[in-house]
Design brief:
The structure is a homodimer. By secondary structure, the first copy, chain A, is α/β, with parallel strands linked by helices. The first copy, chain A, has 13 helices and 13 strands. At the A-B interface, helix 8, strand 13, helix 9, helix 11 and helix 13 of A face helix 8, strand 13, helix 9, helix 11 and helix 13 of B.
Chain lengths: ~350, ~350
Amino acid sequence: MPLTVVGSIAYDSVRTPFGERERMLGGAAVHFALAARFFDEVRVVGPVGADFGEDDLEVMRARGVDVSDVERIAGGRTFFWRGEYGWDLNTRETLDTQLGVFERFDPKLSERSRASDVLFLANIQPSLQQRVRAQLPDARFVALDSMNLWIEIAREELVRAIRGADCLILNDAELRQLTGMPNLLSAAREVLAWGPSGQTPRGPRVIVAKQGEYGSALVTRDRFFALPAYPLENVIDPTGAGDTFAGGLVGYIAANTPVGGAPRAQASGAERPEQVADTNAVQLDDELLRTAMAYATVLASFNVEEFGTERVCRLTREEIDARLRELASMTSFSSAAETAPAGSASPAA
Amino acid sequence: MPLTVVGSIAYDSVRTPFGERERMLGGAAVHFALAARFFDEVRVVGPVGADFGEDDLEVMRARGVDVSDVERIAGGRTFFWRGEYGWDLNTRETLDTQLGVFERFDPKLSERSRASDVLFLANIQPSLQQRVRAQLPDARFVALDSMNLWIEIAREELVRAIRGADCLILNDAELRQLTGMPNLLSAAREVLAWGPSGQTPRGPRVIVAKQGEYGSALVTRDRFFALPAYPLENVIDPTGAGDTFAGGLVGYIAANTPVGGAPRAQASGAERPEQVADTNAVQLDDELLRTAMAYATVLASFNVEEFGTERVCRLTREEIDARLRELASMTSFSSAAETAPAGSASPAA
């Protein structure tokens, strides 16, 4: 199913212990789209300034991303971020943020972008996320990312935005901050209980906690799934890893969900009333979500191997699938429990 | 293969956000033994004071643990620890540590304890770990745990102790601290390269990084394996989780490694010269290590559900195996890569 992403298109200046780059192509929508396009048709919505290079637009276009809703603001400046990472890449300091054209961004989606079945609301002001969401009332799957800033200064707006989404993708520390609950499962279940907002028919039903180098976890009302990160000895630049992860996740879900057919009635329907009530909602099959998490993990691992979009730009589907198989072998074990207690001891159970 | 553990037998006074307990049975050797006894015969070596209750000894004895090498020091006091955990259980403060009988502990192992094929050196002074290791020169598999304190005040001693072990089990932050390397894989490979000490025929060949609520990772010269923690909404007391984890890991390896037979020559022998050189070393099959990690994860998850040893003391093998199957289903995904790029986009690879 076609997929629309709304979010930042940016220039990033980044310094890590392994080098630096000035004004690289970046931004949440860009990283997301360059990952999601491996799975489905992606339409990018977002503003750029007069300084935005045609060649940077071509980076996306050449990889099949629909950039016709990228709005060039005459006289404006493209969103700019400058940051520096600490020695272990787990901390980063923002040295400069220039909103530029994002300061007055009022997303007006074309008919084509509004026709997408799947929507990803990248990390922008929650009020903007809500306005975009309202332009796709019939979206069958909506995912949303956010950040600590909005939890701190616009929590109520953010909660409303989340209630309009099917899937919340957040750093695990932010999920704790959002809910005030230190336990990951409790925090996720809290959000799952928020229910739909007035304008939207469903509430959040999938919570994904990004855990950086430790991996990620997915919580639904009746399932839990978790994966470690793909291990890398040389991590060069984590910028965009979260959005690349989201691109793999949402892109895979978009591509592998049956189109058109109304969802089947479920045997366990009583447990998920909102899915039955809303015949427009996609069925989120357990196996689909697991594989989506694995692809997300793999895409993110390629992203951090080089600066900005460098590695993902020349990535192939074959490389992705090969690493997916590697990841499977790194996380699978036999649970046959074939072994009876051995030795001469007689453990009293 | 029978298994000897040397380490603390203690009384712990613990306060967590969910309650508190005074002078519970605890200590690394106790937590380890109560987990490992599900898999194999376990012999505990360590000192206790005159204040140590016969009923606490009986807790282990009743569960098949051999406590005949638990040395009662006349007039001595049992090791005592008092600590308090923060709101998210990820930080803890030590309020009191009384070494008691551990201050002058000089481990003298009985012939029976020295005859074990497998040895676990729980977290004690590295010089003591070396002295114990020297008493089991023919041990076929030796695992070792340590902590930040020894990295800070006795690093050289600790490195020597590690070079006498086959398997290092450490918190991931401590592994980085030990090696000065922020990257987990690099840090693990650094330790794998240390090689044998003068008195021991092998060097470390398995590194296990404990990552708390995020799970754990295992690194060998040619393999990587990682698992998330089993998700729990109610974590009551993390005390002893690391030693319970080690008990599951080392206990499973001890129970499931063929006894007696000299190791087979390996096709990949050139890559692991020390295994070929030392005919006494156990063969660490990849599948064996994975399943051991999974059992370790499961045992640790039970440990934290209640205070101290309470939950593990009434645990059954059936509960363990049921949770192992659950863990498998929470971490497995299809890597068949059955899905070709869908939608109308033509991603340029």
